[in-house]
Amino acid sequence: MRFDPIRAVSDDELESIHQASLRVLAETGIDFLDGTARRQLADAGADVDDNRVRFDPELVQALVATAPAKFTMHGINPERDLILGGDLMTITSVASPPFVTGLGRDRRDGNREDYRNLVKLGHVLNIIHTVAGYPVEPMDLHPSVRHLHATHDMLTLSDKPPFVYSLSRQRNIDAIEMTRIARGVDKATINEEPSIFSVINASTPLRYDTVMLHGIQEMSASNQVIVITPFTLAGAMAPITVAGALVLQNAEALAGIAYTQVVRPGAPVIYGGFTSNVDMRSGAPAFGTPEYWKACLVGGQLARRYELPYRSSNVNASNSVDAQSAYESVFSLWGAVMGGVNLLLHGAGWLEGGLLTSYEKMVIDADTLNMVAAMLKPIIVDDASLAVEAIAEVGPAGHFFGTAHTQERYTTEHFQPMVSDWRNYESWDEGGRVEAHQRAEKLARQLIDAHEEPPMDPARRGELDDFVARRVAEGGVETDY
């Protein structure tokens, strides 16, 4: 990120949001639905009354100050290491939709075949740096063992840093151990080198659920990455004003971040913003709106105030790969990028407000993200780029296609989108115009076919396979069904 982020509010206005958030935590407080968390917070100096925890402003700020401003998340392959923070941007694929569409088939339940194909697609697309969960939920795998098979696929079909859902202690423990095995390091090393991450959502308004707190306890204690993300929808679970929704977002984020530092001072944590609004006629979440864009910008300002890495998202509310999905995604990206995002979740493939993953949208989003990356490259201004000699060579009424200046540069310095159709009308064949989603479908198939499983030491692979087989035989984790 080579441009200064946009400041949507003044320093005084930002301070007002900060102070209001501290007031919420001190006066109203926030529920922590786990006894261990409440005891730890009480020992740290918080006021605990039943489930309600209230924070002295100085305590919150002292705890948040121990979190690192920048850290490295280690990939299975060291070449995939990611630096989170500063002016660096990490982009993930879409995560967690229950349904999937594309490759010539209509909307369907998430399943392992599509899950594996989408992991492959995310691995081949260079602009996608990591997953942020299951690119679609593989619902044909029983929940008791789903995390074992899905994490195994994540670790073997790609060597980019993996993700775990914080839905039970054992799921976190299993995924950390599988990541350790895949990396080929000992437990002491993985406890010093963050290698896997998880998103912790506040149950807005003002509550952290038991399983989320267990996730913090297991991940932060092991020095793994936590992304604290309140899901604040203005007009529904948050005040209808953007400023009020941001106060609630910030209060919940600060409380969660503070708790990670109670568990382990210095544990890596990311400030997540996911404030949008709802359609007040239907109550449905809206994304890519002016309100979402403003919240992205202020979320970045708040994260920078606390010197923390910032998470935002590429989202839209469209049900199909259409103009709405494109322009809402562009506005979301504009808010995230110009807000100074460090971790862009759901970077490619999100539809239907997060209920649907689309192969075609993933390819189109990757195109857009490559354009963003090209726009963020610096403009080179030197004697050669000023091209005075080339202009003199061509002179009046000429063209630059064949000049040495052009020929030396066009293949490396000019991004050409994969999905765009540069043909003019007269060159269309008898089949007529090929729409963007049709071209994207063809490209998605080609990219999946191009996937090659990254190499893994046979001993590591054998140990990983044996671990999954053993844990599956043990029944995985307890579920209610």
Mind explaining what this structure looks like?
The protein is α/β, with parallel strands linked by helices. It folds into 2 domains: 64-376, Trimethylamine methyltransferase-like (TIM Barrel), CATH 3.20.20; 383-412, no CATH class. Helices cover 44% and strands 13% of the residues. It has helices at 11-28, 35-44, 57-64, 112-124, 146-157, 169-183, 187-190, 210-221, 242-263, 290-305, 323-338, 359-376, 383-386, 388-394, 404-407, 410-413, 436-449, 458-473, and strands at residues 30-32, 47-49, 52-54, 70-73, 82-85, 90-91, 99-102, 105-109, 197-200, 207-208, 225-228, 233-234, 269-272, 276-278, 285-286, 310-313, 343-345, 350-351, 356-358. A 6-stranded parallel beta sheet has the order 6-17-16-13-11-9, covered by helices on one side. A hairpin with a 6-residue loop joins strand 14 and strand 15. Helix 4 (112-124) packs parallel to helix 5 and helix 5 runs parallel beside helix 6. The longest helix has 22 residues, at 242-263. It is globular, with a radius of gyration of 24 Å. It starts with 10 loop residues before the first helix and ends in an 8-residue tail after the last helix. The relative contact order is 0.14.
